[in-house]
Amino acid sequence: MNYLRQFLSFSVFFFIILLSGCQTNNGKQNHKDDQLIEFKGKKDHLLIFTGSDWSDDAHNFVKNVITEELFSALKSDYTVHHIDLPRNVPESKQLQLRKNYLLFSRYGVTDIPFVVLQTAKNDVYAAEAVQNSEKFPKALIAKIKALTAARQSVVQARNRIDNTTGVEKAQAIDSFLSKVLYAYDTKYNDLRLQVPALDPENISGLRGKYLLIRADIQAKKYAQKNDIPAACNEYIEAAQLPELSASQKQLAWFLAANTYLYSQKDVDNQVAIQYLKNSIAADPNGDGVPSMKQMIEELKN
């Protein structure tokens, strides 16, 4: 069963990316933690992630590049936040270390140094690792200025949401979520949940996608409360909706199977097998069918 759970954990990301019908983050998020990354102010925010004692190179970058001179050169356009995650810190700085760890996790930072640019509304428009050739003050400033070119597209997409109604607003929300980085963040759930009501006749063709997303949002809430039957039922009910395409129905049944198997220690394999069979039946020629057949065989053993 451990192998199967690892397989499911990988497969759920495969299906979501493949079908583009749901959120891309399948993890739990804490709303208290969310508050730590809502930066305030009227200017754009520049986040610089470092690990000052990870290596000599990392130490030298913080010492020689993350300086008052750098902050002064950037402060007219950005509020600069240096987010350091050293491995060895005194007890007195453990609280700040935890906050920084949450930020590393939220932005998926694995390579350092790493920079993130976001608007005053906390919409991220650029996020990149700093290359060796950019680990100098002038080169880093030039990189940041170049990354700012992506800003206009995200800002315009956000503004379109505020200036439209009905079907156009539904389309604007979908367009914005396709442009902003880290669109999977739960802070955008309120926008996602608006889409079905904005387009009740499905003129945009987006209603099925966002009905499934709505089910996914609700299912995660139930899963966090360990109410797995209710979580599965959200996906099962979504799979019955006529607005969903065949691939979206397949994903709904697959997510029901994934939630049932991955979230519980004691499961009835026949229940999961039936969910997977329903998923295959929803779209027999779907690209994910071979993977699901493999999962069914694993469950039979």
In short:
By secondary structure, this protein is α+β, with helices and mostly antiparallel strands. The chain has 14 helices and 4 strands.
What does this structure look like?
This protein is an alpha+beta fold and 301 residues long. It folds into 2 domains: 2-25 and 205-300, Alpha Horseshoe (Serine Threonine Protein Phosphatase 5, Tetratricopeptide repeat), CATH 1.25.40; 33-147, Glutaredoxin (3-Layer(aba) Sandwich), CATH 3.40.30.10. Helix content is 57%, strand content 8%. It contains 14 helices and 4 strands. The protein has helices spanning 2-19, 31-34, 56-64, 68-74, 94-106, 137-147, 151-162, 166-179, 189-198, 207-224, 228-239, 246-262, 269-282, 289-300; strands spanning 44-50, 78-84, 114-118, 124-129. A 4-stranded mixed sheet has the order 2-1-3-4, with helices on both faces. Helix 10 (207-224) runs antiparallel to helix 11 and helix 11 (228-239) runs antiparallel to helix 12.
